[in-house]
Write a structure and sequence with these properties.
single chain; 210 residues; alpha/beta; pyruvate-formate lyase- activating enzyme; six-stranded parallel sheet; 6 strands; iron-sulfur cluster binding
Length: 210
């Protein structure tokens, strides 16, 4: 990757030392481990990894970034260095993303576990629907219900499942990101960001426009 060659992110982090900036790094790479020494010198830092599957074959169909195992390993190293981490489970692909299995893998090494549904708009919709028809034909009826007939029951059921998971593991269950902070290990804040266009403002209201 170009960052490995040119190190522009590292140079930027060096410039931010001593500032009061809130820093959020969103990545699909494990290269961030290289910069742990700098991240520890900064104040409010959050590093987030996109992980919406544990299936490397599906991951490879979606992107050419670092493997899921390398992302999880990097998250662990950054978390153990005392830096706030996020597992960004997005987009949640109906019938494919098993967020409970992902949670079991990362719950001891992240502060925030973020759930966001797959949105299909414009030309991207046809690309994904064609992919599902080709690779997961059994899921075509489900995707038709959700994305053509606008049936919300699938994601509503996932919300219920996520809330039960939060109660089981004594995790806060919110509709938006908490203010910067760490949480006890094994109890990440679970963010229900399904249908996020209905969430009011940027505070944790616990209310949606339904």
């Amino acid at each position: 990757p170009q960052e490995e060659q040119f190190g522009n992110t590292r140079k930027l982090l060096e410039q931010l030392i001593g500032s009061d900036a809130d820093i959020l790094i969103c990545t699909k790479s494990d290269l961030v481990v290289r910069d742990i020494d700098l991240l520890k010198k900064l104040g409010r830092v959050t590093v987030s990894w996109s992980i919406n599957t544990l299936d490397e074959n599906f991951k490879n169909d979606m992107d050419s970034a670092s493997s899921i195992e390398r992302r999880i390993s990097a998250m662990k190293q950054v978390y153990e260095a005392g830096i706030r981490t996020v597992c960004f489970v997005s987009p949640v692909f109906p019938g494919i993303t098993d967020f409970e299995a992902i949670f079991e893998r990362v719950k001891d090494q992240c502060d925030l576990f973020w759930l966001e549904n797959l949105n299909l708009r414009g030309g991207f919709k046809k690309t994904i629907m064609d992919y599902i028809a080709r690779q997961y034909p059994d899921l075509v009826p489900l995707y038709d219900e959700i994305y053509n007939k606008h049936n919300r029951s699938y994601f509503e059921a996932l919300e219920v499942k996520a809330e039960k998971m939060a109660k089981k593991y004594d995790c806060a269950f919110v509709d938006n990101e908490m203010p910067y902070g760490r949480v006890p290990q094994g109890h990440p804040v679970i963010v229900d960001y399904f249908y996020h266009e209905e969430i009011r403002g940027t505070e944790n209201t616990g209310k949606r426009n339904r």
